[in-house]
Amino acid sequence: MKKKVLLFVCKGNRYRSRIAEEIFNKNAPHGFIAKSAGIHYQKWNDRAVPKVLREIGIELTKRKPMKLTGQMIAKASRVIVFDGVKISGKMETWPVKDCHAGDVVCIRKGRKQIERRVKKLLTELVAYQK
């Protein structure tokens, strides 16, 4: 069975969408996988992201940020964007603000907001599968 793709999109794929992808994939129900991208290309992940993910037992996968493509959107069964991102098509928006690079306090606060939203999403998906 082909997995359903949830696509998380933020501005640069260096912080919010990467955190959402990592948290979702660590807990993904059978048949689902998350991917993430940014509307602008960023060369590196935010240096604070590995630290705030390790605090909850997740290691950041070793890949550079990715720029959003139309093909990514077309393959996604659900698209979730973060504040400040505008793309065409059906999507939902999560109101998690962007942070300055390396701002551990801000990124940790954002991670907590993303965690709550991902847990709610996982609960919905598991209930839907039953």
Write the layout of secondary structure elements.
Blueprint: E1 4-10, H1 16-27, E2 32-38, H2 49-54, H3 70-75, E3 78-82, E4 92-94, H4 104-129
Parallel strand pairs: 1-2, 1-3, 3-4
Helix pairs in contact: 1-4
Quick rundown:
With 130 residues, the protein is an alpha/beta fold. It contains four helices and four strands, in the order βαβααββα.
Question: What is the third-level CATH name, the topology?
Answer: Rossmann fold
Q: In sequence order, what are the helices and strands, one letter per element?
A: EHEHHEEH
Name of the CATH class: Alpha Beta
Task: Pick out the low-confidence regions.
Answer: none
Brief descriptors of the model:
38% helix; Rossmann fold; 4-stranded parallel β-sheet; 130 residues; alpha/beta; 4 helices
Protein architecture, described:
The chain has a single domain, classed as Response regulator (Rossmann fold), CATH 3.40.50.2300. With 130 residues, the chain is of the alpha/beta class. It contains four helices and four strands, in the order E-H-E-H-H-E-E-H. The protein has helices spanning 16-27, 49-54, 70-75, 104-129; strands at 4-10, 32-38, 78-82, 92-94. Strands 2-1-3-4 form a four-stranded parallel sheet. The two termini are 17 Å apart. 38% of the residues lie in helices and 17% in strands. Strand 1 (4-10), helix 1 and strand 2 form a beta-alpha-beta unit. The longest helix is centred in the last third of the chain and has 26 residues, at 104-129. Helix 1 (16-27) packs across helix 4 (104-129).
